[in-house]
Design brief:
The complex is a heterodimer of chains A (467) and B (225). By secondary structure, chain A is α+β, with helices and mostly antiparallel strands. Helix content of chain A is 55%, strand content 17%. In chain A, the strands form three sheets. Chain A has a five-stranded antiparallel beta sheet. A five-stranded mixed beta sheet of chain A has the order 7-9-10-12-11, covered by helices on one side. Chain A has a two-stranded antiparallel sheet with strand order 6-8. A five-stranded parallel beta sheet of chain B has the order 2-1-3-6-7, with helices on both faces. Classes of the chains: A alpha+beta (467), B alpha/beta (225). At the A-B interface, helix 7, helix 8 and helix 9 of A face helix 8 of B.
Chain lengths: 467, 225
């Protein structure tokens, strides 16, 4: 329950309901007041008409006609009974006096007061609130001057309207308030339940069940969209996690083997202690092993440095064409002595903003990858061209290519083909290329449907500053 | 060669010192930056090896101080950090070379030798000569015994680097840095391939092999091989 009151949905529905209530009350009250004013105006009209009528009769000195009009047989002063009866029937009453104050006709208890006014009339069994209109009538012929009050109780309509408004206000409170709470409770419970389902999945993930996914309904509502996003994020995290595991296992595996070999060499040296030449050979080999281990660590550290993005601050204008041409010229003899060919086709003066050192390393890694895995007598090419989006540097060969199960992960750390495991190298070359590409916002792609290995490194179009 | 070694790690210092003494070079070792600065200013050393991570002082700042005090002795900075930025900032401070620990002694030795031999640019001759071999830097022309030898730009740069350090070992890493400008270590035999092509052109047609491979460390050029 406490959860419910803390729930945002719950609070929002209450807030909105309160706002609705205020608006409804305002409409009801404005409408009611207008209705009551209309009724009052009608009542005043009726009294004014009566007053004018009485004034006319008096001017024509037709008091009898007036009496006739009120349909009373009684004498000049009305009985209490008559007054009560007429007031009960919402009929007008009258008090006709001489200006001196003497009652000529009508109700004794209705004293003269000029203009519109309210007056309470007490009869034997009841009391009435009446609206009165007082006025004086001068006789033009020198006869008596009169002071007249006509009055009428408030109409039943007025009371009905007032009651309706009061009732409406009460009903609004009685119905809307509990309904708002009910709505808020139900809605927030549903939302809470869905959120709890999310929270449970999150909890599972926090405890390492990275393979869990949030169920997505076909409704495609906001929760489903959130779940979808979240699942996608989990996929990415899963990939990172797998990558991390690979790195850990890779480091362990790739270092365990050379360290174990180093251990064997040291044992061998101990056994050969009597033969100085053998000891020297053993030491040379041990040093080679250690060099390899240090190189692996250096590559990892370098990758860390690249991935931190710090080197972006040192980006300068780099003549990619010149760099690629130099690399091609430097590597051509290496390819030749390995029994391969290196063909280059490089468009001149393509410049980008970047780190020349790192780009050189990326190209070198790609070329060396090709030397290592290409086929004897095969061809490798390096090409640099411009495209609509920027510049593409391509390194490809006609070798056996990368086996398809490995293609997707070839740029990850320590991922190596089975046959590559037995050749020198640490499985970091291509992942270093990827890190360098990412630093330069360049797209790194492995061509999918070619027999050899063809890798594109697509640099974005340089900004005006770099050109 | 008279070397001043400023290094706080006794094991590394001993390793360097033994290596230098084996080569019959002199080595003075101090283990803190203050003594290092004092000795560097006093004595006339051929080359100074300064560790970057000394207690209480960054070796880079020490180098800057020495350069401000007009000490012109070549300085090699040693560091455990491998970031490129560190290398650049070390060189900018006035160091002449930079090495990342751990290193092979042969690499350090080759670099120290090269630093000792380094001549001020104004005095550098435009034609290098070793025995019958001549390299004209301005014309980019190489002749041996008067016969012109056509070299690729990389081969020419390698030859110049070797000739400038006549009789001294030039390591693969030094060649990578100075000929190609690479700060990384290619897996393949990039340097070996170019050097063996150079040797094929410089030495094969002649009786005496001038370029010699120093096993495990680098290459040496000399008049009689």
């Amino acid at each position: 329950m406490a959860d419910l009151f803390r729930s945002t949905v719950f609070r929002w529905i209450l807030v909105y309901s309160a706002a609705f209530l205020v608006v409804a009350l305002a409409i009801l009250l404005i409408w009611g007041v207008l209705a009551m004013q209309r009724i009052e105006a009608e009542e005043k009209d009726v009294l004014t008409e009566i007053a004018e009528f009485v004034e006319d009769l008096l001017r024509e000195e037709r008091l009898s006609a007036l009496i006739e009009e009120f349909e009373t047989d009684e004498g000049a002063e009305w009985s209490d009974e008559l007054t009560h009866f007429r007031l009960s029937e919402e009929e007008p009453i009258i008090a006709l006096r001489l200006v001196t104050g003497k009652l000529v006709y009508g109700v004794e208890d209705l004293p003269y007061q000029e203009g519109w006014h309210w007056r309470e009339i007490f009869t034997e069994d009841d009391e009435f609130l009446v609206r009165g209109l007082g006025f004086e009538v001068e006789d033009a012929n020198g006869g008596d001057d009169f002071a007249v009050v006509v009055a009428r109780p408030r109409s039943f309509d007025y009371y009905v309207a007032r009651e309706a408004i009061e009732y409406g206000v009460v009903m609004l409170f009685v119905i809307v308030v509990p309904l708002a709470f009910l709505n808020a409770g139900l809605a927030s419970r549903r939302v809470l339940r869905r959120l709890q389902r999310l929270a449970r999945t999150f909890g599972g993930i926090a405890h390492g069940k990275l393979e869990e996914r949030i169920p997505v309904s076909p409704r495609n509502d906001e929760f489903d969209r959130l779940a979808l996003r979240f699942n996608r994020m989990l996929d990415a995290i899963g990939k990172l996690d797998r990558n991390y595991e690979d790195v850990t296992i890779g480091v362990a595996h790739d270092l365990r083997t050379p360290i174990a070999r180093l251990g064997q060499r040291l044992q061998g040296i101990r056994q050969d202690a009597a033969d100085p030449d053998a000891v020297h050979r053993g030491l040379d080999r041990a040093e080679q092993e250690i060099d390899g281990i240090i190189k692996t660590f250096e590559a990892l550290l370098r990758m860390g440095e690249i991935q931190s993005g710090r080197r972006k601050q040192q980006f300068r204008r780099v003549d990619l064409s010149e760099l690629a041409r130099d690399m091609a010229a430097s590597y051509a003899p290496v390819f030749e002595s390995a029994g391969r060919g290196l063909e280059s086709s490089i468009l001149p003066s393509i410049r980008i903003l970047g780190d020349g050192d790192l780009i050189a390393q990326a190209i070198s890694n790609l070329l060396e990858n090709s030397i290592e895995h290409g086929r004897t007598g095969g061809q490798t090419w390096i090409r640099l061209q411009t495209t609509a989006k920027g510049a593409v540097l391509q390194v490809g060969d006609d070798g056996p290519g990368i086996p398809s199960p490995l293609r997707e992960r070839i740029f990850e750390r320590f991922v190596r083909g089975d046959q590559a495991r037995h050749s020198p190298g640490n499985g970091l070359g291509l992942s270093l290329v990827r890190a360098i590409a990412e630093l330069h916002d360049a797209r790194l792609t492995l061509h999918a449907h070619t027999s050899g290995t063809v890798i594109d490194l697509e640099f974005p179009r340089p900004t005006a500053e770099a050109r | 060669m008279n070397v001043l070694l400023v290094e706080d790690d006794p094991e590394l210092a001993g390793f360097v010192r033994r290596g230098l003494e084996e080569q019959r070079d002199m080595c003075t070792h101090v283990d803190n930056a203050r003594d290092g600065l004092l000795r560097a200013a006093d004595d006339r050393f051929d080359v100074i090896v300064f560790d970057r991570l000394l207690p209480g002082m960054d070796g880079r700042d020490a180098v800057r101080l020495l350069r401000e005090a007009s000490v012109r002795t070549p300085i090699l900075l040693l560091t455990a950090l491998s970031g490129i930025d560190d290398r650049v900032s070390g060189l900018e401070a006035g160091a002449d070379d930079y090495m990342v620990k751990p290193f092979a002694f042969s690499e350090l030795y080759a670099r120290l030798r090269a630093l000792c031999r380094r001549q001020p640019l104004a005095d550098a001759p435009s034609v290098l000569r070793i025995g019958p071999l001549e390299a004209d830097l301005a014309k980019q022309r190489v002749t041996r015994s008067g016969r012109e030898i056509a070299l690729s730009p990389q081969e020419f740069k390698i030859l110049v680097e070797l000739m400038r350090n006549e009789g001294q070992v030039v390591t693969r890493t030094m060649l990578l840095e100075r000929v190609w400008g690479y700060r990384f270590d290619p897996k393949t035999s990039l340097v070996q391939t170019h050097v063996s092509r150079l040797r094929a052109k410089i030495d094969r047609p002649f009786d005496v092999e001038m370029i010699r491979t120093e096993r495990g460390s680098g290459y040496v050029i000399s008049a009689n091989g």
